[in-house]
Amino acid sequence: MWDWILDWGIWIATVSLLIAGLFGTIVPFLPGHLFILGAAFVPFFTLEDSGGVEVWGLVTLAVGIAVAQALEFFSGAMGTRWFGGTKWGAFGAIVGGFLGLFFLPLGLILGPLIGSFVCEWRFADQEIKSAAVSGVGSVVGTLTGMLVNLIVGVLMVIVLVVDIFFW
Prior knowledge:
Layout: H1 3-24, H2 32-46, H3 55-82, H4 87-100, H5 107-122, H6 128-165
């Protein structure tokens, strides 16, 4: 008699994790992609017949997490290189992005910018103007990485919905 309450609770938890996951792909300090994967595990482990979630769906979501994390981590460096920066600028963008995590939320933008600029200017002996262009490239790359994170999150939700309801 109470099975329907348990089933509803499981689906409410799943949908809540999906919403939190999509929100977390935008907000820097929330592990959005992990929430989406957690949303897949809730019906997989609690409902009969895996709740409609297949192993291929879980593997696809795990690959999505790996891709999103790699792109998020290296996006500032890729933007620096795209704007003509040197390896020093890319290195500075990575270090600045890591250090920027301690100064959320502005640190996510300013960290790669400052890191790329300082490394280009000091270690690669670039002029201030070209170092600044490299720094701007790191910001463009970081913002692009955030957008790609959101897109990957939406694709992960689509994969999960297709896996549960249509596969």
